[in-house]
Structure prediction request, 333 residues.
Amino acid sequence: MRLSVLLAAFLLSACTPESAPPAAGSGLMNVSYDVSRDFFKDYNPLFQTANPQAGTVKQSHGGSSKQALAVANGLAADVVTLNQESDIELLVQKGLVKPDWAQAFPNRAVPFTSTTVFLVRKGNPKQIRDWADLSRDGVQIVMANPKVSGNGRYAFLAAYGAALKQHGGNEAAAQAQTQRLLANVAVLENGGRSATTTFIQREIGDVLINAENELKHTARQFPDAGYEVVYPSYSVAINSPVAVVDSVADKRGTRKAAEAYLNGLWTKPAQELAARNSLRPADPGVRAAYAADFPQVETFRADEVFGSWQSIMQQFFADGTLFDRLYTRSRTP
Prediction:
């Protein structure tokens, strides 16, 4: 298929408007994060074939935190499939999700994971290999905005965590390197898919920082363009937690279907589907079978390095805290 046709189809999927809340009895609404759309486009027919009584599954995609806020403000989701625990905890605080949501499903309600990697243009003309290369003069970066996007937060935490490791835990040196990286950011987009669209359609940037599954999907979609996925030596593990929105599911009478929908994510067919969509499956057997598709990367869990997600949000992403300070300084001549 010609690149222009693939590009048009890809961009159309990136710009699909969010679905309206379902009427009672019309099926399920899954409110999800930005770069999960390709997996769920394949998973939903799999689920509906096995559970025809559940009805149609509708999707809403966007930056993870924006999606959580939309649900908190009334978007009638039966389930949420997000990429940051704090986004689900927001719904707990609003009384929409039960406090024990992480115990309701296996693996602390995380069916698959990803990690933050790079996409570069054909031939990797800037020779980008690791995080330190993103701080060099003359490198232009596209990424999602950490203020509204889970993928953006993971990108920032990965960059800062790698800088801390490189500098032996020296916070001042790590912050200086991360500030130089932020000075090279040409565009902060609202979500992971929007960042990809900017990199491809607008041809801005030398490197796109995003989730592994998104970037491998992009490279497959445009083989003629010669995009290359680059794996840094050290990065952050991206979890994708899921939960039933109890207040909605109980009100609409969809709890049984909602629980079946999420439990289905741990079945072998769904885990294999996740692997084929470049998401790292939780099932050890499936993970082993697809090991060749997932280069080994030393990763860290953000909540193990920087404290709980509540603490991370307060230290790094609340107004006036570390991300804001470094980004503002990076824009100051």
